[in-house]
């Protein structure tokens, strides 16, 4: 009896896990679209990243470029309508 109950509990947990996998965060789609909208800022970030990676011992961090990109995406997401 106890073993049967444990198996039932395991099966129920597996079903719950399967249901949870189907959930999709609608914000993720909006973020992707906003990243496409912010291509100019993203290009600046990528150029900076390439520049930093090509120079050993540089003190440049691309922090400002990253902040600019994140700000652009966040602003776009904030004005988008999420259904």
UniProtKB/TrEMBL annotation:
Family statement: Belongs to the UQCRH/QCR6 family.
Boundaries of every Ubiquinol-cytochrome C reductase hinge domain copy: 25-78
Start and end residues of each stretch annotated as Disordered: 1-27
Biased composition (Acidic residues): 9-23
Protein's recorded name: Cytochrome b-c1 complex subunit 6
GO cellular component terms given for this protein: mitochondrial inner membrane
Chief place where the protein resides: mitochondrion
Record's function text: Component of the ubiquinol-cytochrome c oxidoreductase, a multisubunit transmembrane complex that is part of the mitochondrial electron transport chain which drives oxidative phosphorylation.
Membrane topology classification: Peripheral membrane protein
Superkingdom of source: Eukaryota
Key words of the record: Disulfide bond, Electron transport, Membrane, Mitochondrion, Mitochondrion inner membrane, Respiratory chain, Transport
Disulfide bonds: 34-76, 48-62
Species for this entry: Holothuria leucospilota
GO biological process assignments: mitochondrial electron transport, ubiquinol to cytochrome c
InterPro entries in alphabetical order: Cyt_b-c1_6, Ubol_cytC_Rdtase_hinge_dom, Ubol_cytC_Rdtase_hinge_dom_sf
UniProt subcellular location: Mitochondrion inner membrane
